[in-house]
Design brief:
The protein has 9 helices and 10 strands. By secondary structure, the chain is of the alpha+beta class. It has 2 domains: 86 residues, Phosphorylase Kinase, domain 1, CATH 3.30.200; 178 residues, Aminoglycoside 3'-phosphotransferase, Chain: A, domain 2 (Alpha-Beta Complex), CATH 3.90.1200. α4 packs antiparallel against α5 and α5 runs antiparallel to α8. The longest helix is centred in the C-terminal third of the chain and has 20 residues.
């Protein structure tokens, strides 16, 4: 993909817009991370995914349309044939959120997840949850970490994968968001909107709940009072489940390798990536730690 700037949209975006019959002049980057999001004329958002993610992009669009039919307040895909494959990248197009938006509260998150987890099984093929998707690639890309630290992460990944196959029995499998944190369930001028369904899956509801628990007991981003509001609103506390330590460790590994991957191309995150792995390796005392958000 060409380097993204405010004045030069990547070639994949221009090609995808031409294919979909959409304008791309005066586009503005909204977020440049693992995926790129751009604001197009007419308040349309284009999302450019990584090569090889065609199936995930198509599933995200299908999931959003189904969730809208189920009265989940999800951001809506445009009514065009998508994803569009351009320059090897799957590109999808979405309605822009109304007005400014802010991260949802613990109560907003709990209410949304309770609704989602109570839905019937989707009438289309949905992939099973893989808590470790892209983690090996992130470790490979983490070139700012030392070889011993990367080997330690790989060993941890192997251990958690083995535990996952023999995990304790939990709640019945259901449709889950897959990446349920306040940045993906936001407040707008017209109410809550659910974003980023790239990890929409069938799996244990506990996976959606563990993110808030980790934000409380691992990183300290959520207070104990907020966590109590979350569990009371949802009606369950995932930390009471025997499998919680496994899911929490998997989420911590994802967060650490995400930071390490970005540190390889952006020196702003070198210190944070190293700090996260140092925390996991016991070099900074017990939880909770203070982890800064990446991008």
């Amino acid at each position: 993909m060409t380097q993204a700037t405010a004045n030069t949209p990547p070639a994949a975006l221009v090609e995808a817009c031409q294919t979909a019959g959409l304008r791309w002049e005066n586009t503005q980057p909204l977020r440049i991370a693992e995926n790129q999001t751009w604001l197009l004329p007419g308040r349309v958002v284009a999302r450019i995914a990584r090569p090889g993610q065609e199936q995930a992009a198509a599933g995200e669009v299908e999931a959003a349309r189904w969730l809208a039919d189920q009265r989940v307040p999800v951001v809506r895909p445009l009514g065009v044939e998508q994803p569009v494959i351009a320059g090897g990248h799957p590109v999808t197009f979405w309605e822009h959120l109304p007005g400014p938006h802010t991260p949802g509260s613990p109560r907003d998150l709990a209410l949304t997840l309770r609704h989602l987890h109570g839905l019937p099984r989707p009438p289309f093929s949905v992939r099973p949850l893989d808590p470790f998707v892209r983690v090996p690639q992130r470790i490979d890309a983490a070139t700012t970490l030392s070889a011993p630290d990367r080997a330690w992460l790989t060993d941890l990944l192997d251990d958690l994968r083995a535990q996952w196959t023999a995990r304790p029995t939990g709640w019945p499998e259901t449709a889950i968001h897959g990446d349920a944190w306040p940045g993906n369930i936001v407040c707008t001028t017209t109410g809550i909107r659910v974003l980023d369904l790239e990890r929409f899956s069938l799996g244990p509801a506990e996976w959606d709940l563990v993110s808030t628990a980790v934000r409380t007991f691992t990183t300290g981003a959520t207070s104990l009072t907020e966590y109590a509001e979350f569990t009371t609103t949802y009606g369950q506390d995932v930390t009471d489940w025997d499998g919680y330590p496994l899911l929490a460790a998997a989420r911590e590994l994802r967060m650490t390798t995400y930071a390490a991957q970005h540190a390889a191309t952006d020196p702003r995150w070198h210190q944070q990536a190293q700090y996260r792995i140092d925390c996991l390796r016991g070099r900074h005392g017990p939880r909770p730690w203070t982890w800064q958000g990446i991008l």
